[in-house]
Design a protein that fits this description.
The protein has about 100 residues and is α+β, with helices and mostly antiparallel strands. The protein has 3 helices and 3 strands.
């Protein structure tokens, strides 16, 4: 069974022209790790201009790009990313996980 991650832009939330599917993950855990890194990359990108945690959360859910997959609690993960900035480039390197 293959797993996938649905990505999109909060600025055009659920607009089919602004969503894309990343298919082909061998496990749910692999899809979740891709989505976590994708979200963290978005949060870190926005953090540069929005260091305040409340403003950063609002900016992410307004202007960021999302990644969803079965079993990932996006709200909790975004809160974690805001509270704990990325420690290394690996934390945001979702591209290396693309199947």
């Amino acid at each position: 069974m293959s797993h996938s991650v649905l990505c999109g832009d909060f600025g055009a939330y659920q607009d089919p022209d602004e969503e894309w599917l990343v298919p082909g993950f061998a496990t749910a855990e692999a899809a979740q790790e891709y989505a976590r890194r994708f979200i963290r990359a978005q949060v870190e990108h926005l953090r540069a201009d929005t260091p305040d945690p409340v403003a950063l959360r609002d900016a992410y859910f307004t202007f960021g790009e999302y990644a969803t997959t079965e079993g990932l609690d996006t709200q909790a993960w975004v809160a974690h990313c805001i509270a704990h900035p990325a420690a290394s480039p690996r934390d945001t390197n979702y591209e290396s996980l693309t199947p």
